[in-house]
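dude i think i finally got it to work??
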Amino acid sequence: MDNKLKPQKVWVKEGFIGQRMIVLPPNIKRKIITNQVIKNFYLTAIGHYPNAANHGRERKTGSNQYILIYCVEGGGTINSGGVTHTLIPNSYYIIPKNLPHSYNSDANNAWSIYWIHFTGDISDKIFDRYLHNGAPVVQHIPYDENRIKNFEQIYSILENSFNEKEMEVMNIYLLHFISSLIYYKEANPAIYNTDSISNSILFMKKKIGKNLTIEELAKQQNLSVSHYSRVFKQKTGASPITFFNQLKIQKSCQYLYFSDRSIKEICTELGFDDQFYFSRLFRHITGVSPSAYKKAHKK
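look at this
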């Protein structure tokens, strides 16, 4: 009888094509903590991992800095304090300091991430502003090219100099970069002048098994289709129907991973009359077929 064990997935910390990363030397960090301009908030490490296949890391005792992971392509998961969070494009998560955690790129749809380790006297307060109802959660925001340019400015400065003034302006840019994520809603009041979109998303989640039209969604919020579609895309970065389908596929991933439901049963549960359409949509969003996803994640 063949008793061979299935080989475990091997995750790697670094070494990806196109990766960039900088870690501040100890002597530079000592200078920063005595600098009155930036000691309140500064980074200790920064990096960009594009298409980081097989990327993964575990810190059994956590880190003494906060760790921001911002995903722009692909996907992955973060386990922090025993809770698993899923990152998709245009989402980010901040890992609390001193908390055991692990994270890894999706095996079938490798993530591209920007990451930063940060600390300082006000870092706890900045982290508090990120929390939702007192807990760290994945936050979704529209892609902004200016945010990426800001990151590149930070990285470029670090590549060229660790001098005092350069460290000051770099960490000022850092605060702007973090703020563009945490304070996105407050910095864009025209987009968030109503909570109708948040209510609409809650409605979608409650009706996840239904086939809702754009007209029904707009009517539920007492908005015209054109206005509803415009403000919805401004807030989420996607059209209402595209977003609704993404919610359905996310839910189907949970069913495939945590249950023994067949693909046909999942289709029925989520309101898909055509199993082939569901499979095409699933592949379009995740990069793999439902059967391949189920096989890859089957325990």
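Residues 196-297 form a domain with the Arc Repressor Mutant, subunit A fold (CATH 1.10.10.60).
im so relieved honestly
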